[in-house]
Amino acid sequence: MDALGHVNNGRYVDYLQDARVDFLFRTAKELGADDLETGLLVARHEVEYRAPLHFRPEPVRIELWISEIKAASFTVDYEILDAEPERRTYVEARTRLVPFDFAANRLRRISPVEREALSKLVGA
């Protein structure tokens, strides 16, 4: 919380990371694209704050999906929101990720298996 009782803006990026890691690692493994688990770097974050989120015991919902796939990067879009009683969005965000080969210490292109798996998550 910040001094005004809102979720601190830096914490939102932590929430997004937690959701993205769970989504990609679990889903990538289910779809046979295991390399996404061990070799991704964040190239860019964009965060738009829509409404303050005040402390409360109830969880918020994070919806995320793949919005773009390129040769050597892909983009995850998110919303942090309450769905009920009416939809209220606190944050809209986007993260561009790049595959990385840690053994060779260099960026790499998205493999055909990864592209197929990511394609199944577009707009998911």
UniProtKB/TrEMBL annotation:
InterPro entries: 4-hydroxybenzoyl-CoA_TE, HotDog_dom_sf. One of its GO terms (molecular function) is fatty acyl-CoA hydrolase activity. This is Acyl-CoA thioesterase. It comes from Kribbella pittospori.
